[in-house]
Amino acid sequence: MNAKDTSVSGLTKGIEFLFKKNNVEYIKGTGAFADEHTVKVNLVEGGETSVRGKNIIIATGSEATPFPGLTVDEKKVVTSTGALGLKEVPKKMIVIGGGIIGLEMVSNKNGARSARNHKTDL
Ligand SMILES: Cc1cc2nc3c(=O)[nH]c(=O)nc-3n(C[C@H](O)[C@H](O)[C@H](O)COP(=O)(O)OP(=O)(O)OC[C@H]3O[C@@H](n4cnc5c(N)ncnc54)[C@H](O)[C@@H]3O)c2cc1C
Fold this sequence. Notes:
By secondary structure, the chain is of the alpha+beta class.
């Protein structure tokens, strides 16, 4: 866990350094479109600001697809994000989804006595 946290912090701090070095303004917060040229941002440190641009690139990544009948609590039922934060390797685990990350989760958890990967079509 410490190694993972150190890597994440090192990589994100590295990006912040590159932003500074290249005069890129970095605004930390949650953004939402106010209109087609304006993004309103709720700032992490409190308050809000607006940013305008002729063209805006949306790069908000992806989220795990919800699975019918299962509520993700990031403790017992986890997405890949929660799985990376588990404090210990579970003795058994079921991985739903036979894509690259599902396979990675199974092979990463080779300390688990039993790990099964299910390819499931929703
Ligand atoms: C477990 C796992 C392992 C992976 N391993 C690899 C690998 O080994 N090699 C590889 O090449 N790829 C890997 N990937 C894939 C890789 O992480 C993604 O393809 C890549 O991170 C996508 O980059 P992105 O910039 O599109 O989105 P992200 O990295 O997800 O960044 C999107 C950012 O937008 C932010 N955001 C979302 N909504 C808002 C909002 N409204 N306002 C402000 N910010 C917002 C999010 O908080 C996030 O910081 C892995 C992914 C996972 C989940």
